Amino acid sequence: MNNFFYIIPFILQNLFFVFFLPIYKFFIRLEVRGRENLKNLKGPVILAPNHTSELDPTIIPLIFPVFSRLLPIYSVIYPIEKYSDPSFGWRRYIYKELFFEVLGGYPTFSGFKDYETSLENHINLLNKGRTVCIFPEGKCTTDGNLRPARGGLGFLVHETEATVIPLVINSLYGISFFDFLLRRRKVVMTILKPMTIDDIIFVEEPTVEDFRHGSQIVLDKIRESLKSQPLITYIDNDKELNLEKNSLFKSIFNIFFIPFLNSLPKNFKFLIRRTNEAAATVIDNATNHKALEVLYSKGDMFSLKKVGSQFFKYVWFNMNNSKAVRNRLKFVKRELKNHLENISDIDRDIEIISIASGSSRAIIETVKDGHYLKDAKLSITFLDKDENAIKYSKDLSVHINHLPIKLDWVHDSVGNFLRGLPAKKYDVVEIVGLLDYFNDDKVIETFKGIYSILEEGGIIITANVNHNKEEKFVSDIIDWKMIYRKVDELANLLVKAGFDSSKMRVFYEPLKIHGMIVAKK
Questions:
Q1: 43, 129 contact by CB (below 8 A)
Q2: Are 294 and 199 found together in one domain?
Q3: How many CA atoms lie within 13 A of 258 on its CB side?
Q4: In b/e form, how buried is each residue of 114-136, taking b as 16+ CB within 10 angstroms?
Q5: Tens digits of per-residue pLDDT, 213-224?
Q6: In 3-state terms, what secondary structure has residue 74?
Q7: What's the 3-state SS for 390-413?
Q8: What pTM was estimated for this model as a whole?
Q9: In a domain, 244, yes or no
Q10: Which domain holds residue 271?
Q11: 132: helix, coil or strand?
């Protein structure tokens, strides 16, 4: 190894400590735990963190003090040509070979299907007593959950007998520039106890599966640590979804307008009904699918010709709660699409159930544009106790009748359905909106039932309305009464029902009115 590629990474990673540590301490309130596990540590060392973000490599060197003998850290990275992929956006113009080399990044050699060839650089580094960082998952998380382990870590341990330090990053996933700037996120990096080859590889002549199993042992240590740490909640500002937010003018306007609405007497509902047909429909059908359908359309399903009616339609359907409902719909569709894409190659019907399905709009619109499903076979169950909702859902499903999808409607309550112990196991359970009306005990009971009908690796997509400034107006004037919860409170109910907190992604839509959770069994 050229001395240049030792000295430069060593200098830059020490500068990381001087430059990034105070920035991260302030903006993401970075806390490093477990430094006692680095005492008397000698090379070669393999750092094995979970991969939450492209920012992970900027915080990992901060576990070591300045001028540590274990610096620089050499990272296992993709083959250089992969970084020219358009998916990296503007970063592909920066992610060049020299950029990675001066920071300590050494690529794998792809296409050989042979660990020894692919990881040749990193074996040489470890044999010289250096420190190498490899993510056991192989790739960055796409959903906030840990991926299955790959075999690279296990192979490096077997070849070099290096000491492994599992690192728990909790979590840079989904962090936005504004989260960073406004100090919305606290990130904790935990250094776990060192592991040796005897803890990871158990046979003299390991196979590829043995290497994967060894990597998974390390990843399971990380998972166990994540379970004991506070859940990370964040505001998801996914730019691809065209989410609704407030302009500066609207935010200032709301400072005065929302308190005015909250001060109105309860009988003012009568006057709001008279402003236009769309508002009347929402008020008359609060809590059911008809009201939600009007909110989804911003009231445009009604032809309002009077100027006054159009004005009030704009006012009512651009309130924060109206926008947040539409944001929630977009997130449900995103999560459905992402998971179906991930499991589209399984050799059986993909089973989906929507509980308290209402209009079923999220699922129907998601599968309607199903090019990403390839040859996957879908079987979808819509469960609702409202006959009118089922009829509406059936009418809406004409948009997917041409697709090879099995559709089934069940007229029943969620309690009766789950107590009946359905014969099927489901890959996706979507229950969004119903829990806004259940007390904690009933939510836990429902989650327990859902856990029992989920396939291993299956997901639940769920949500709850959060306390917000328009809450009094919605509850007292519109008479749409709900049980408000913070999203971490909903997550705790999932945990009490048996779900693993380390397999959850917990976030708010941009207006922080609806908290959402995607949890994997």
A1: yes
A2: no
A3: 16
A4: ebeebbebbbebbeeebbbbbbb
A5: 999 999 999 999
A6: strand
A7: HHHHHHHHHHHCCCCEEEEEEECC
A8: 0.79
A9: no
A10: 264-318
A11: strand
